[in-house]
Design a protein that fits this description.
alpha/beta, Rossmann fold, six-stranded parallel beta sheet, four-stranded mixed beta sheet, binds alpha-D-glucopyranose
Length: 470
């Protein structure tokens, strides 16, 4: 597998959760898996072995030099591509939500290093690539290495975790990623006058999948297709949806080391202690625990539905409910939450941060979890919320629609403030019937989204890919 993030090494979102769990789940089923990742500056090499010294990667006239280190993560070898000039930086993709200007080179080197791993260190039958950052792998295999017998018979799978990130660059970058101008055509890399690396992957990978069935259908429509729906419809015969799983070793209130008290479906008493702890953590009064707390943990981006929250925030504040939010991202949304917290002290609070411990505390202490996404390929937080008894309020889109049902949460369909407010009011009204509420919580806590089922689907997909080898 080739990707730009994987827990516990580097994480900005759910992609890392997937890469931190799916390889192990596949390995547990008897597959042999390795992961290739950039070695970002913060990744420590303690316990790693240098397995390749001074790998040279030529991209046009430029030569990038990298060492490859191997570290084992719960039985799965992880190859770290160590090229400090490209990866030893403050953040993964760029400062404050912007992109580093050389991201095309950074992820071209990742792709070429991954192919060096395939050539020299770990010989797979399938290279499984994730998102635009790994999309050059199938492009190089198809166009640069087509005649190279090393790669003969190796199949490629591209998983699209988020079509909203197409990896766009101006056409002038092609020589810098070692590709010929002749690939700048609508049939390969050209996308409305620019280069889209994701498009390159969509066009050249042998198979495609996304992270829920619903999203696999949605991206073939104009509404969710980001201009690529036609392309995806043309490849519908090789496009499937496989729902992500959850790493319950990491996300279970029975064993979670980050929360104030452990609890389970059989004994919920610890949850109240977690709620008190959460309110204290956010500086909200814990005088009336009968008032529900709504939690948000999110990247602050347009994808996550913050314009709707902005529309109804004042209405929410006038209901009998507290709201706590954790996230970072677009400055406008960070400001929105800061303003709300200032306008409604004691009722709304925000932490502008990336804080894993606090994310766990919110799942454990919140009574409801809000995720009104405009679109959502899968979404993991709502699934964590089910297990923690934080009843999800979600927009019925993508993976949110596939994982939450009437028995376990609240859904609204139309992307409007009033539809969102309707779902929140339904939740508040059910909250006033403690028995019904408890049953809803318990149904959610009993749902099982462990990785094993998803890993079985990936394994079956890999088998099919090997069967249709020419
Ligand atoms: P996405 O990948 O689109 O951001 P997901 O729901 O799939 O959405 O996954 C988000 C992951 O990132 C979850 O594990 C969540 O806990 C984590 N996360 C997001 N924002 C933060 C934050 N500010 N602090 C800690 N964890 C966060
Ligand atoms: C993306 C999507 C999210 C999904 C995650 C992991 O970041 O936005 O919905 O859960 O990838 O697949």
């Amino acid at each position: 597998m080739v990707a730009s993030e994987a827990a516990p090494f580097a994480k900005t979102g759910g992609l890392a959760d997937v890469l931190g769990a799916l390889p192990q789940a596949l390995q547990a089923r008897g597959e042999e898996v390795a992961v290739v990742l950039p070695r970002y500056g913060r990744i420590r090499l303690d316990g790693a072995r240098r397995v390749f010294n001074d790998l040279r990667i030529w991209l046009g006239p430029a030569c990038w030099r990298a060492d490859l280190h191997r570290i084992d993560d719960r039985g799965v070898p992880v190859y770290l591509v160590d090229c400090p000039a490209l990866y030893d930086r403050e953040t993964l993709y760029g400062p404050g939500g912007a992109d580093y200007p050389d991201n095309h080179v950074r992820f071209a080197v990742l792709a070429r290093a991954a192919l060096a791993v395939v050539r020299r260190l770990f010989r797979p039958e399938i290279v499984h690539c994730h998102d635009w950052q790994a999309s050059l792998v199938p492009v190089y295999m198809r166009h640069l290495l087509a005649g190279d017998p090393t790669f003969y018979g190796i199949r490629t799978l591209l998983t699209i975790h988020n079509l909203g990130y197409p990896g766009l660059f101006p056409p002038e970058i092609l020589p810098e990623i070692g590709l010929d101008d002749s690939l700048f055509t609508p049939g390969v890399l050209e996308f409305w006058g620019q280069v889209s690396l994701l498009k390159g992957g969509i066009v050249t990978a042998d198979r495609l999948n996304t992270v829920s069935r619903r999203y696999a259908r949605e991206i073939q429509t104009e509404e969710f297709g980001f201009g690529m729906d036609g392309l995806l419809r043309a490849r519908a015969d090789v496009l499937t949806g496989i729902l992500n799983g959850v790493d319950y070793a990491e996300w279970s209130p029975e064993t979670d080391p980050h929360i104030a008290a452990r609890y389970s479906a059989a004994d919920l008493s610890g949850k109240l202690q977690c709620k008190r702890d959460l309110l204290a953590e956010f500086g909200l009064p814990a005088d009336d625990l009968s008032r529900p707390v709504i939690g948000i943990v999110s990247r602050f981006t347009v994808q996550k539905g913050f314009d709707l929250i902005s529309e109804v925030a004042r209405e929410i504040a006038h209901e009998d409910v507290d709201l706590v939010a954790l996230g970072t991202g677009d400055a406008a949304y960070e400001e929105l939450f800061r303003d709300l917290a200032a306008a409604f002290p004691g009722r709304i609070a925000v932490r502008i941060a990336y804080d894993n411990r606090l994310a766990h505390k919110i799942e454990a202490g919140a009574d409801m979890f809000l995720m009104p996404s405009r679109y959502e390929p899968c979404g993991l937080n709502q699934i964590y919320s089910l297990r923690y008894g934080a009843v999800p309020i979600v927009r019925a889109t993508g993976g949110l629609d596939d994982t939450i049902d009437e028995g376990t949460g609240f859904k609204f369909r139309e992307y409007t403030g009033s539809a969102l407010m309707g779902a929140i009011r339904d939740a508040l009204s059910m909250w006033r019937s403690p028995e019904v509420w408890r049953e809803t919580m318990l149904r959610g806590m009993a749902r099982d989204f462990s990785w094993n089922a998803s890993a079985a689907e990936y394994a079956a997909l890999y088998r099919r890919m090997l069967e249709d080898r020419p």
